[in-house]
Amino acid sequence: MVILTQILEKARQAIEKNCNNFLETGNLETLCENTQEQVLALGRDVVRATLEELDAKLIADEERKKNWNILRTEKKQILTSLGTVSFKKTIVRDKATKKQACSLLDKKVGLTAHQKTTDEVVTRIAEAAVLNSYEYAGSRAVLNGETLSRQTAMNKVRGIVIPDQTAIDDSKQIEKKKVDYLHIDADEDHASLQFYSKKGDLQRQGCYKRNTLITKLVYVYEGIDTTENRHELINPHYFAGTYQGEKQYDLWDEVYAYMDTHYDLDHVKAIYLHSDGGSWITSVTEYIPGLIHVLDSFHLHKYLTQATTQFGKYRHSLKEHLLDLIKCGKKSEYQACMDSLGKAKNLTENGKYQIDRCKAYILNHWQAARRSLSDDDSICSCTAESHVRSVLSDRMSTKPMGWCKKGADQMAHLRAYYINGNAMSKLIHWQKERNIVKQAVGAETTSLPVRKVKPGDRYVDQINVHPLPAVMQNTSFRKLCHGDSEEFFS
Question: Which one, 44, 240, 382, 427, has the greatest CB density within 10 A?
Fold first, then answer.
């Protein structure tokens, strides 16, 4: 390529001039800045020349002369990670069908007629947006300092289709593991909405806006590695999203599909479900008998601490006594003890409320609380609180920021995909290969039925509990749940 030789010679002269300038001034910062600009400029020139050379080759091809008529030459600009590249392309039309004009170059390299950015730019935006704001992602998309608006960055992220993990993985190449126990932890984060269905529709209850959206997190793992000082989960896999209304079925279907793809479920002795007892989590055990619920010890101790803290120097002994009653399964004695505490003198209204609240919470999850305190080595401690922080909260709720329902769901899915160790480029290529186009950005999905919001309720995502038919239809899993698992403390 003659043009390539000319480009390289031009770049050589510019770099030589830059080096000579450094030898005179000794300014290292200027040397680095100019070198970066020159290398990026060289890259853009190479991309431009190569695209135009390919276009010329396609036009000169005998097959083209036989089937396509040349209409005109157009100039196209496209944003790459190196910066904006301007090049010429030839527009042709099919001789036989007389269909709409197109570019053979676009078809060859996989560009659409009006595409403004390359896939690598979208990948860089997604990689930055999953960790930082859309504004930051727009500023990191291009290496030469060109920036995209935060609206554009958000649109690119919203346009990414995130399929189930099993849709990306080649399941035929996955050898199913044989493990004795599996663990599922589940919890939720609370993101703030800018609006519910349209801007300005948030209602106030006192000094609070009713704008909290529940974002769910579920992850599957094989146990906890305690050999090192810093304990780690063994092969965790994360699922996250809002999964509002009936879409909660999709969440548990995805969880089961992952387990069925990666593990020999006929070999699994028990699957433990660790949670704080939220209704959207515990409802799964009602429709999938065999998932053994274990109460999060953090919440168990929190409720007991809140109930006993007002008894001064006796609070520690009272808490230990209540823990012993729960561990030994002395339910009636626990109830009697809590009733006695509730009748103690000089209790405040809040004190009575905390005792009644603790009593009801533990009684509602009695067997799960006992399992949490058991000495069974197969039961791990629940780590959901810390994982909610690292997987969801760090990006979605710890800083003052507002979301729409669609944006929160998309970001939660992206966070889970990223933390599972997947490459964003793989996701973009998967979408492009299948020619998948997501619903128009900004269009909200049809509202799903939710429970009527009670007065004072700040949460707009309240979930109706229904069976999970897609999971229950799986014969292998039903056999596992009903035949191979024994109920603890029945």
Answer: 240
Q: Do residues 415 and 395 touch, judged by C-beta distance below 8 A?
A: yes
Q: What is the crossing angle of helices 28-60 and 2-25, to 10°? A: 180
Are both 104 and 126 inside the same structural domain? no
Is 24 inside a domain boundary?
yes
pLDDT band at 175 (very low <50, low <70, confident <90, very high): confident
What's residue 3's pLDDT? 80
CA 377 – CA 396 distance, rounded (Å)? 35
Number of domains composing the chain: 3
The CB-side HSE value for 449 (13 A sphere, CA atoms) comes to 4
Instruction: Note whether 45 and 128 are same-domain residues.
Output: no
In this prediction, residue 36 has a pLDDT band, given cuts at 50, 70 and 90, of very high
Distances (CA, A) of 287 to 215, 226, 471: 22, 33, 9
Mean pLDDT across the chain, nearest whole number?
84
Same domain flag for 263 and 401: yes
Structural domain includes residue 439: no
Q: How far is CA 3 from CA 8, 41, 50, 73, 81, in A?
A: 9, 15, 9, 19, 22
**What is the rounded CA–CA span in Å between residue 464 and residue 246?**
8
Q: Cα 391 from chain centroid?
A: 8
Return all residues near 194 (Cβ < 8 A) that are at least 6 apart: 211, 402, 403, 404
Task: Check whether 480 has a pLDDT greater than 80.
Answer: no
For 179-189, write each residue's pLDDT tens digit: 999 999 999 99
- Which among 261, 214, 215, 213 has a CA at the least distance from the CA of 237? 261
The range of the structural domain enclosing residue 142 comes to 120-158
Statement to judge: residues 148 and 34 lie in one domain: no
- Lateral strand order in the sheet of 212-221: 237-241, 212-221, 181-192, 270-275, 291-295
Look at 394 and 457; give whichever has higher pLDDT. 394
Cα–Cα nearest to 379, from 304, 278, 292: 292
* Pair type for strands 237-241 and 83-94: unpaired
Is the residue at 434 inside a domain? Answer: no
Asked whether residue 191 falls in the same domain as residue 243, the answer is yes
Tell me how far apart the alpha carbons of residues 136 and 151 are, in angstroms, rounded to a whole number: 11
Q: Which long-range contacts (CB under 8 A, 24 or more apart) does 329-333 make?
A: 329/370, 329/489, 331/363, 331/366
